[in-house]
């Protein structure tokens, strides 16, 4: 055990003052060793759920079998894992990688799996051979950790990575997407990321592969659109994000019409235009979007009430008439002027 400067945590301090055996674990310790700030505080504590709730007023159960809790205290949030009749070494044994299996008790380090050595050697090693089996999301986390820490999986870990790759999609859709989006912000070596993602079943087309870092820097949607390229992968997405990704797919494949562009906001048009440029397109969609005479159905110069007073039946017919007006404005057949639109409705659309 070696000395480490004190990791400041109000939750940790409160638990120690209350008399419980308590350790800071995981990423916070790792980051402290690297001299980096850590956004997350993970704590292992020999305490029961009832006792934890008696110490803190706001405790939220998370994780499997309710052994992990989010604790909120004096503006700090920490994840507390209960050590029930087990030593800290057993808690560390359940962690993903050795660099995350280090505990700090005040200024003292507990490192039974040589995580410090792995950090120095820039090596990512699983704690046990069952690591990926116990939690398949660790497969994606390994890809991210390589980028985040500038380390490389050792031979045994990589062999296990390949052997267990099919398990990834047994994890929940939400966790897979969450981990992919965390990876988006960490990519430094795109060729390595592409190699590992392909092993896991994510195929990036040759037009996009060389520019993966630039694509990742743009938005969640653009990054996911180039990673999730078939129906099975797109099905991982929640409904709204799935709709956006499918629009990206469609408009990258074909030139979007003016009506199509209205289904996107300006930043989305910029994303799609960038992806199309990577495929050799010369069409400047952003200029096309900016020249549109109207960009939202809410910008029509007539309201629903105006249309009702003009004789349009209430209900779905209002939306239909507005859509037809919008199309004609975009096609240059009508000007977005109230009198012009109402005249057209009365002459052409009311029978």
Explain this structure to me?
With 351 residues, this protein is an alpha+beta fold. It folds into four domains: 10-120, Beta Polymerase, domain 2; 124-202, Hydrophobic Seed Protein; 203-292, no CATH class; 298-349, Serum Albumin, Chain A, Domain 1 (Orthogonal Bundle), CATH 1.10.246. It has 20 helices and nine strands. The strands form two sheets. It has a seven-stranded mixed β-sheet. Strands 8-9 form a two-stranded parallel ribbon. The longest helix has 15 residues, at 239-253. The protein starts with 9 loop residues before the first helix and ends with a helix. The model is unreliable at 1-5 (pLDDT under 50).
In short:
By secondary structure, the chain is α+β, with helices and mostly antiparallel strands.
Strand proportion:
5-15%
General form? elongated
Structural class: alpha+beta
Largest sheet strand order? 3-4-5-2-1-6-7
- The SSE string, one letter per element, is HEHEHEEEHEEHEHHEHHHHHHHHHHHHH
Number of helices: 20
InterPro entries: Bact_CCA-adding_enz_type3_sf (IPR050264), CCA-adding_enz_C (IPR032810), NT_sf (IPR043519), PolA_pol_head_dom (IPR002646)
Cofactor: Mg(2+)
Protein name: CCA tRNA nucleotidyltransferase
GO molecular function: metal ion binding; nucleotidyltransferase activity; tRNA binding
């Amino acid at each position: 055990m070696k000395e480490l400067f004190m990791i400041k945590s109000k939750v940790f301090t409160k638990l120690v003052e209350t008399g419980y055996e308590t350790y800071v674990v995981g990423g916070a310790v790792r980051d402290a060793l690297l001299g980096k700030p850590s956004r997350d505080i993970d704590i292992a504590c020999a305490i029961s759920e009832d006792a934890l709730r008696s110490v803190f007023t706001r405790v939220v159960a998370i994780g499997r079998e309710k052994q992990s809790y989010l604790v909120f205290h004096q503006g700090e949030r920490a994840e507390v894992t209960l050590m029930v009749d087990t030593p800290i070494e057993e808690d560390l044994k359940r962690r993903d990688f050795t660099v995350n299996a280090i505990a700090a008790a005040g200024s003292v380090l507990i490192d039974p799996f040589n995580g410090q050595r792995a950090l120095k050697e820039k090596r990512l090693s699983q704690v046990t051979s069952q690591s990926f089996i116990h939690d398949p999301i660790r497969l994606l986390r390994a890809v991210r950790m390589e980028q985040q820490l500038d380390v490389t999986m050792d031979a045994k870990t990589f062999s296990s990575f390949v052997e267990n790759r099919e398990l990834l999609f047994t994890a929940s859709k939400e966790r897979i997407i969450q981990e992919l989006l965390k990876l988006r912000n960490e990519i430094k070596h795109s060729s390595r990321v592409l190699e590992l993602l392909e092993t896991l079943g994510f195929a990036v087309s040759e037009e996009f592969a060389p520019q993966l870092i630039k694509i990742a820097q743009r938005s969640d949607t653009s990054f996911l659109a180039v990673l999730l390229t078939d129906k099975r992968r797109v099905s991982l997405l929640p409904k709204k994000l799935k709709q956006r990704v499918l629009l990206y797919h469609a408009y990258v494949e074909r030139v979007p019409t003016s009506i199509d562009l209205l289904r996107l906001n300006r930043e989305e048009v910029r994303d799609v235009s960038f992806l199309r440029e990577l495929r050799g397109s010369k069409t400047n969609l952003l200029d096309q979007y900016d020249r549109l005479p109207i960009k939202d159905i809410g910008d029509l110069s007539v309201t629903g009430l105006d249309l009702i007073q003009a004789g349009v039946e209430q209900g779905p017919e209002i939306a239909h008439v507005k859509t037809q007006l919008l199309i004609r404005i975009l096609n240059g057949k009508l000007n977005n002027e109230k009198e012009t639109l109402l005249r057209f409705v009365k002459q052409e659309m009311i029978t």
